[in-house]
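We emphasize that the prediction below concerns an isolated chain of 434 residues; any contacts that depend on oligomerization or on bound cofactors are therefore not represented. The input was used exactly as deposited, without trimming of termini.
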Amino acid sequence: MSKKSQQGEGKMGFGEVVSIGIGGMVGGGIFAVLGLAVKLGRGGTPIAFAIAGIIALLTSYSYARLSVTFPSKGGTVKFLVKGLGGGVFTGGLNVLLWVSYVVMLALYSYAFGGYAASFFPEGSQMIMRHVFISAVIVGFTLLNSMGAKLVGEAEKWIVGIKLTILLAFIGVGSINISMPRLEPSAWSGFPTLLAGGMIIFLGYEGFELMANAAKDTKNAKKNLPRAFLFAVSFVVVLYIAISFVTVGNLPVNQIVSAKDYALAAAAEPVMGQLGFIIIAIAALLSTSSAINATLYSTARVSYIVAKDGELPEIMEKKIWKKPLEGLFITAGLSLLLANILDVSSISVMGSAGFLLIFTAVNYVNFKMHKQTDSNRWISLIGAAVCLVAFAALIWHGESDIMDLYVLAAMIGGSFLFEVLYRTFTGRKAIELNN
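Result of the prediction step, given as a token string:
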């Protein structure tokens, strides 16, 4: 084999890895949680996005260093096993990771249903939202089960289209911003602002997808850290700008009343009815592409975690060379969550799950800083900030007891499942090889 072949001709460069990160973050999150963010942060919503962005930047450092040291398609699962071993705690975190992906899928589907229903009369929007939620999950599950190459090929175009539309929205919307709506007097109190930032944290979650591309990245030691930093920084600035324009152009009460399609509602006073339609179409494209990508990656996560010994063996079976049992179980749970919970409960679940997982990943990099050639203090601060953020989320949950119950069931259930599964099956975790 030639040296050129060994180095991996055709592997991904810096720009391609950045595209994966930006595409993963600017998926359905900003369309799904913007209305909820404004409800909590009010005029301080850009600050809430900035706080969440700082946590994402700190955590992306740990991901970058671990990805370079332990390149694997297993990504987060690999890092947790490497740093924490194959015990019950690691198993519970890996089950929680899979559940968190299921929650993200439910969130994207909820957003798709909200934007699609906005084209119907107000009286029928609630029913139509559930119709579209169910249809989009079932539809993309079938496409994934058949290996629809066309949908995968369309991903790069969808990312380009939605970024172009969002940047145009920012450019046009910046012209007529009402600054009094953004002054400190219009902000929520800091505790609520902090809790709001944590609830919308899941809007940044997708940067971890870059870790899964580590094995396929050219000159990974140089390109991966740069890609993580650039992609997360770009999205932080993008989200702050979007929230700045949204709050600056539309009264908070109107944004909150249209929370299921807040970004489209914010575009209407800026770009007219055509603006509403364009943003709504962008949201449908974006959330549908996010649903497709999340279904694919979550089926893989369920397969990897099952192969690692922490989910039932049925989840690692393959039909037609695809982990379809994991796909169908994931889709079924997402269908249930998206139809019975509201966006607040789903957001709390998703953000909490990833904050706990990111706390563990930061701790792993702190613990293994000599192997990963890292600044351990950055990772220690990252772990501490993630825990503080989780506490802020719990504090907010006390204002809605149902959110707190659902969150406790999600986290407790993940670890309880792991304990019971190992107790009754005797199955032990194994080390990931890829």
